[in-house]
Amino acid sequence: MSSAPHGGIGRRIAYHRSVTRLTQQQLADAADIHVGTLRKIERGARGASDGVVESIAAALGIDPSLLLADRAQASSRIKAAIPALSAAIAAYDVPDDAPVRALPLLQGAVAEAVTWRLAAQYVQITRHAPSLLAELFRALQAAPPRHQPDVARLVASACRSADAVAYKFGAHDLSARLIDLMRWAARQADDSLLDSVVAYVRTETFFAARAHEHGLRALEVALDSAASPGSTASIAARGALHMRAAVIAGRAGDVDSAHTHLAEARRLGDQVPEAVYGGTAFGPSSVRIHEVSVAVSLGSEHVHSALEVAREWAPPPELPAERRSGFYIELARAQLWSGLPDDAFESLRGFGGRAPQCHSPSPQARSAPTARPEPLKPGVWGAAPPNVTA
Predict the structure, then answer these.
(1) Among 12, 61, 110, 244, which is least packed, fewest CB within 10 Å?
(2) What's the distance, CA 69 to chain centroid?
């Protein structure tokens, strides 16, 4: 079993233990390890095996990547686990005969995966998603007709969590396959709100291919067929599509469409409280973050708008980690573009703790901008646009 290096991990454990106001004895008890072992780890006298790191992280209620002395170690683990995701979905239509948990237990497992996705806890997703997906495929095949829509929604949600890992870490072919599975599951769910969610996530494929005009057209088609905004959930679903359309229009250089969709997203966002609807964060704060992204996407004549937003506002702490980290990523791009490299560095340094596994600056962040900021390379900074999967 591998062991995390001594340097750094003890200090990280001690820090997070202090944040949660646990004594060493309390943390050791919760993690089911000897307090003497914990003391040695915290003072750097010994390393920690993967199992011990995971036990301590679980006791602290955080992702194991936050405790690793070298965060590149977390990224390498995630990338190494991606083939298991691919294998899990290869036989989606011919699943094995292993047992399947009751529907309420499956709903709880999928809800947990959604929580990890919104918190950018990709190590946890890669550890659990392959077996969860395989079980959900079995459940969907075996479900009686009255339960098939419910299970199909769970399949779509679990695929979205797995896609967050695939897309963020550059496995775009796998991401596209997972999105196709989301579309397949949505057809069986016969749920117009889920159709909007899938259209929102599908935009990743257009970002990855830089086919921005096609992506904008696909979102506008989805808006035409979306449920009328008669409920909070339907308002949020439509607003999220407008948010996404504004960003991809910006990437396409379509200023009018970007502003039109952003204005509509703002109007709808003012009608609902900030919350996670159908797995997507939406509300006034999410729209404000996308204002920054749109300004950066449109280029030099608009970047000042991103800086103006940041001077007056910062994402509240209750927003999902992916949403908040996306704001600081795009703000750093705007600052770099505006000749403020020190400010950009501070934004990037600060967001690392907000979304621990979205931490590697892209080449665009380290070099001077050209005529228009290049779109973020998906999977490097972790957002293109911000919170692509949030």
Answers:
(1) 61
(2) 23
